[in-house]
Amino acid sequence: MSLPSRYAPEGLSRADQSKVITSGTKREHTPVNYILRTIDDKIQSALHHQQHGYNNEDIEMIPIEDEKEVDVISSYIEFLRGDAVYPQSDENIVEDTPDSELVEGNISFLILDTNFLISHLKIVDALKELASEYGLKLIIPVYVIQELDGLKNSDRIHESPYADCSGESISQLAKWANKWVYHALADFPTVVKGQKLSQRISKNLVKDDAIFDCCLYFKERNPNSLIILLSNDKNLCAKALSNDVLTVSFREHMDGHVIAKTIYEENVRRFGKLEAKVKPIESPSKISEKTKPLEPSPEWLEKAQQLDQLNGFDDVRQKAYTEIQMVLLAALDHFG
C-alpha cells in the first residue's frame, strides 16, 4: 500500500483531501518574546524585593541559567560594543594602591569580561569567596570598568534594534555588577583587582582588543600562572584560545566551586604543586606615618614668634647679635 498522495495510484480519499498532513512531532507553542519576559520578570521581581522592606543597597545576583538568555545578553552587549565609545576616564581607576600582600604558589588570574559579570554575578561572587582556597585572582580590565559604567548610565541602550532584549534590563544588571565591582575592590583588595593603567601592552586599544590585551599582559608578566578569560563572547574566546589563554564560558549547571576546583587542578597539572609564600606589604597609611614630617619644637615656635614681632632690619640685626653673644658666653662659661 502506498503512502497517501494525490500522485499515488489510488489517489486521495475525500476525507484525506480535507486533512492537513504534517511530519515529525508536534512542537509546543512558545509565547512571543518568552526570553525577554523571563529576564525582565527576574529583574522586576528583584527590584520589587528591594523596594518592599528590604535593603535597597543589596546587590541582586540574578541567576541567568538558560542558554538562550545568556545568548540574548551576550548578543546585546556585543551589539552595543560594536559602535559604542565610552569615555576613558581615569578617575575611577586606582593606579597607585599597592597590593596588601604578595602571594607565590599555584596562582590563577581570572580576567572578567562584561557579559560574564552581568550574566553570572553569583558565580563570580562565589569565585571571590573561594579565591584563597584555590589561589584565584579576579582581574577587572580597565575597559570592563568603563563599559559597565557606560551601560548603567547610557540612554542609547534603550534604542537598540534587538527586539528580543530589554535595554532597561541590561542597564539594571550593569548597575548591580558595577556596584559589586567597587565593593569587591574595596573589601577584597588581595583577591579582586582592577587592571591598572600601567598594566597594558598597548595603551590605545578598546573593546574586545582591550580585554584581550589585558589577558596577554598578565600572561606575559606571570609565566608560571594560569591566565583564564571568563567570557561568553565566542569570538573573543577563540582569539584567547589561539594564544594559549584558557577560557570559561556558560555551561548548564556550572557553579563557582566546580570552576575553581577545575582551574586549580589544571594549574597543578601544568606547573606542579608550588609552595605558597605570603609576603605582607605595609599599607600606604603605615608608610605615610613613618615618613611624616617632623613637627617644629615649642622652642622653635617661640623664637619664630619673637622674630615676627621685630620691626625692620636693625631690630633683626640687634636680636641676632644678642643671641650670638648669649651663645658665646654660655660656651665660655661651660669650658671655663
UniProtKB/TrEMBL annotation:
<keyword id="KW-0539">Nucleus</keyword>
<feature type="region of interest" description="Disordered">
    <location>
        <begin position="1"/>
        <end position="24"/>
    </location>
</feature>
<dbReference type="GO" id="GO:0005634">
    <property type="term" value="C:nucleus"/>
</dbReference>
<dbReference type="InterPro" id="IPR029060">
    <property type="entry name" value="PIN-like_dom_sf"/>
</dbReference>
<dbReference type="Pfam" id="PF13638">
    <property type="entry name" value="PIN_4"/>
</dbReference>
<dbReference type="InterPro" id="IPR052626">
    <property type="entry name" value="SWT1_Regulator"/>
</dbReference>
<feature type="domain" description="PIN">
    <location>
        <begin position="108"/>
        <end position="238"/>
    </location>
</feature>
<keyword id="KW-0804">Transcription</keyword>
<dbReference type="InterPro" id="IPR002716">
    <property type="entry name" value="PIN_dom"/>
</dbReference>
<dbReference type="GO" id="GO:0004540">
    <property type="term" value="F:RNA nuclease activity"/>
</dbReference>
<comment type="similarity">
    <text>Belongs to the SWT1 family.</text>
</comment>
<protein>
    <recommendedName>
        <fullName>Transcriptional protein SWT1</fullName>
    </recommendedName>
</protein>
